[in-house]
Backbone:
């Protein structure tokens, strides 16, 4: 199948190579000629283009791997070039606003399906791309009433081809609630933890736990500030629920209350163990 | 050298095997006969004892690998059996109170040196022991004015033999300040994060970041509640500093303040990158 991948960053280039390995023809689009050259030279795409308009009439699927706001402005710019019957999809980490906007924007004979491949690295750029990051990861499709079974099936097949372990369906609203906890809150915590450190010697005395907990404090500020703000209401709620729980530990320390500490530790141990299975 | 290791749990058995591999004679002590049998059968110790009194007169070094309070009560119980010139050490994750108490308790011709090997696993028991957990990890010696250069050198040599990458000296007070941040705060955060989750479906939608961040939420409640309370003042301060920093992110979300989010993300990225080197 002919697929356009718009945005040849870490995820875009990884998806492109994964699709290419599965026999698809992949047209990569980027405004950065270096990214195109890199992807062509390393055979991550079939062919590169700097103008999105050129590929829209060639492809059955258009996959955006750019910031949500960029996807929307590109769609507005090229709105007349989308071919009837095209399936448009994305990789955004937030869905409610984005899916609604894209479905409103596109003509009725062009279908948008939101997809969130839950994989990534703390690097940016095609040089760090690797289709193996998808192996074993979660892939969430966020359908709405406007989607057709055939388009959903097509995106599901792509998820399977890319090697995702688990393919789930969630409404865009439910997706954003979930992601506020499992992804955005964890990033907020890691950032706050690193930034709260006032001691210049800390890094001489870290163990594995600190390193693991703060790996995601290395974060693309432009992208994540957009994702955070797109999902701000859910994220504020999750931060507050987390703060309440941390306050329980703090109060127990203030009151020398060992029983409460043990209760909290036993609860988290039991709950987290279910994830090991 | 003849070394007594008191407490054949995960750390005690790992240390024992590491010392045995370096040619020492290791006498393992535990009240649990099954632990002794396991360690003897798997050649993790030279010989096992259920009564600590029996080994005190044989050994140059006595290494406690039990909870801080248990070390103190065992020392009180066997106080008359410690041989002149013995070096006593431990593996506790908190130092200020523990080192002061042990140095006060022991006779002047028996020397206590605090050591914190910064390694561990989310499992308990000799069955999960592995001397490789020390390879590449941090090893902190916490001397006081009462320690002799020769005893410190002895403990340093043991750290080297066990394969620790970095051996540091910190006062017990400074150690506890540091560990409140790099170890205890991270555990408090992981526990609070897991316990704040109210959604039964969460575990179907986790990525690597959530799994890494919450690994240490599987925690030995008896041990860690003791460690937390022994270091409560430092830990309360670190929790509050972390909360202030998380509030900055929360307020930025409430105010739709992208600039502050980007500033926080750039700061954490830059700071955390120094740990990658």
Residues:
């Amino acid at each position: 199948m002919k697929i356009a991948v718009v945005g040849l960053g870490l995820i875009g280039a990884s998806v492109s190579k994964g699709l290419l390995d599965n026999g698809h023809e992949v047209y990569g689009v980027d405004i950065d000629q270096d990214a195109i050259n890199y992807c062509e030279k390393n055979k991550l795409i079939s062919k590169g283009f700097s103008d999105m308009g050129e590929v829209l009439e060639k492809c059955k699927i258009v996959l955006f791997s750019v910031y949500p706001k960029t996807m929307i402005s590109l769609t507005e710019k090229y709105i007349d070039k989308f071919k009837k019957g095209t399936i448009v999809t994305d990789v955004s980490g937030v869905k409610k606003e984005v899916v609604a906007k894209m479905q409103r924007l596109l003509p009725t004979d062009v279908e948008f399906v939101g997809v969130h491949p839950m994989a990534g690295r703390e690097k940016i750029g095609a040089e760090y791309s690797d289709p193996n990051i998808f192996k074993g990861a979660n892939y969430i499709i966020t359908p709405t009433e406007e989607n057709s079974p055939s388009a959903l099936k097509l995106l599901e097949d792509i998820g399977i081809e890319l090697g995702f372990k688990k393919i789930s369906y969630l409404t865009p609203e439910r997706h954003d609630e979930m992601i506020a906890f499992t992804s955005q809150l964890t990033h907020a915590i890691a950032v706050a933890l690193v930034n709260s450190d006032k001691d210049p010697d800390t890094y001489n005395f870290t163990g594995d736990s600190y390193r693991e907990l703060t790996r995601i404090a290395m974060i693309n500020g432009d992208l994540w500030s957009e994702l955070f703000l797109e999902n701000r209401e859910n994220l504020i709620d999750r931060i507050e629920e987390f703060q309440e729980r941390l306050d329980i530990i703090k109060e127990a320390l203030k009151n020398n209350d060992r029983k409460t500490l043990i209760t909290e530790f036993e609860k988290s141990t039991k709950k987290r163990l279910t994830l090991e299975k």
Summary: Strands of chain A lie at 2-6, 25-29, 47-49, 61-64, 87-90, 111-118, 138-142, 166-169. DSSP finds eleven helices and eight strands in chain A. Chain A has two domains: 2-170, 175-273. The two ends of chain A are 37 Å apart (CA to CA).
